[in-house]
Specification:
alpha/beta, seven-stranded mixed sheet, globular
Length: 218
């Protein structure tokens, strides 16, 4: 490779893979399993819309909302149906294809969250920041270590002034992004940590809890 063709530091060619992509490489059927999992839960009558109720309550009517790590559109499609303007971004093209199928009215993009600012066009003329960003489904736990803080910074960057991000994830096996480090990263990139909860029903977070829902403001 000639020197002029060397990749720029931080580009996807040399970036650590997310744990989601690692898991997909080990099991090519993983994405379809994930899609089917929530279809089955919905068919069984289980509540899979707790995140939606919270985000809708926080939003103005017709809000511009970013679903970061949107998966197959479980959250985004419901927010779109409630009249919001949803953009969903996920690294997995299979999940994005399913999201497009179930909710063609929303905007869906296949991209790594470390490229989020570029993906939603932050530097383009007339860019309008998002009022709310939701990141659920343990997305943060699947990020490559080397990209975590960059992703959190992107969350801050894509929001409008006064916008809020609501990030929820668990501390299960294989997910070593500690809540303490995540909150420290959030503060370092400029966020104010408004509140922390242990559920999407806003039960207060306590030390030792294994799930975090953090409300952050810009």
């Amino acid at each position: 490779m000639a020197p002029m063709d060397l990749p720029t530091p931080g580009t996807s060619s040399e970036r650590d893979k997310s744990l989601w992509l690692v898991r997909k490489e080990a099991n090519p059927d993983h994405s379809q399993w994930y899609i089917n999992r929530f279809k089955d839960m919905e068919a069984e009558g289980k509540d899979i819309a707790g995140e939606v109720r919270l985000i809708d309550a926080m939003a103005s009517r017709g809000a511009k909302i970013l679903d970061a790590g949107s998966g197959p559109g479980r959250i985004g499609k419901r927010l779109q149906a409630l009249g919001h303007r949803v953009t969903g971004v996920d690294i997995d093209p299979e999940l994005i294809a399913e999201a497009q199928r179930v909710c063609p009215e929303a905007t869906w993009k296949t991209a790594d969250l470390v490229d989020l600012a570029e993906t939603v066009g932050v530097s383009e003329p007339g860019y309008e920041g998002f009022e709310l960003l939701v990141c659920a489904g343990n997305v943060m736990g699947f990020l490559a270590r080397s990209t975590r803080k960059s992703v959190v910074e992107n969350f801050y960057t894509v929001l409008a002034e006064g916008g809020r991000a609501v990030v929820g994830y668990g501390s299960g096996p294989g997910r070593d992004y500690s809540f303490e480090q995540f909150l420290a990263d959030a503060r370092e990139v400029g966020f104010t940590v408004d509140n922390t909860y242990v559920s999407w029903q806003l039960h207060p977070f306590k030390e030792g809890d294994e799930y975090l829902v953090a409300v952050l403001s810009k």
